[in-house]
Amino acid sequence: MTLRFAPLGPADITVAAQVINGAYRGGDDGVGWTHERDLVGGDRISPQELADDLARNPHAALLGAWSPEGNLLGTVWLNPTADPHVWYLGLLAVGVEGQAGGVGRGLIAAGEAFAAARGGLRMRLTVIDIRDDLIAWYVRRGYEPTGRFEPFPQGYRVLRSGIRLNVLEKAIQ
Ligand SMILES: CC(C)(COP(=O)(O)OP(=O)(O)OC[C@H]1O[C@@H](n2cnc3c(N)ncnc32)[C@H](O)[C@@H]1OP(=O)(O)O)[C@@H](O)C(=O)NCCC(=O)NCCS
Questions:
Q1: Whether the predicted model's global pTM rises above the 0.90 cut
Q2: For atom 21 of ligand 1, which residue has the closest CA?
């Protein structure tokens, strides 16, 4: 399947939040091969939070992966960090029905190309430290654990005590 990768606009925000929440938490369509359903409760993000994040970060983009029929299959958030050579990749999500078919791999590659074209030399991402299958997937994409960890952010209903974020990075040029 040939996918189209393009930044989302304001009209796509609501459907993007649906795709993201369905992927991270599992939804009516079932649960995918990796998710946070047992670790964090509530939505991952609301349409308003997504719109606010985009408005607050003028260099950020939420890339979408679109099917040939024009359906939004997945998303990835990209934003330069305080060091403009290091970009942050987040909100990587593929709707449950579209998972395990290469869309996630495509989104990572498109995100890395997007950042590299804007001067990014390294990509950084964070993963909940006990999600071993997902960390292994990122390692297969070339990401390496940096040895650094961050506290899990405030404002979420955490269902498993002691979780924190493992920081991974990859050279993209
Ligand atoms: C993580 C995510 C984006 C991956 O997207 P995807 O489209 O399913 O990924 P791909 O199809 O490109 O790759 C599927 C991979 O899963 C592997 N896989 C499939 N079923 C699996 C299983 N039961 N256990 C472990 N790995 C599995 C495949 O072997 C393949 O790995 P490979 O690319 O190294 O061969 C998607 O699962 C998702 O949205 N998850 C919920 C949100 C989330 O956790 N995001 C990341 C937060 S840091």
A1: yes
A2: 33
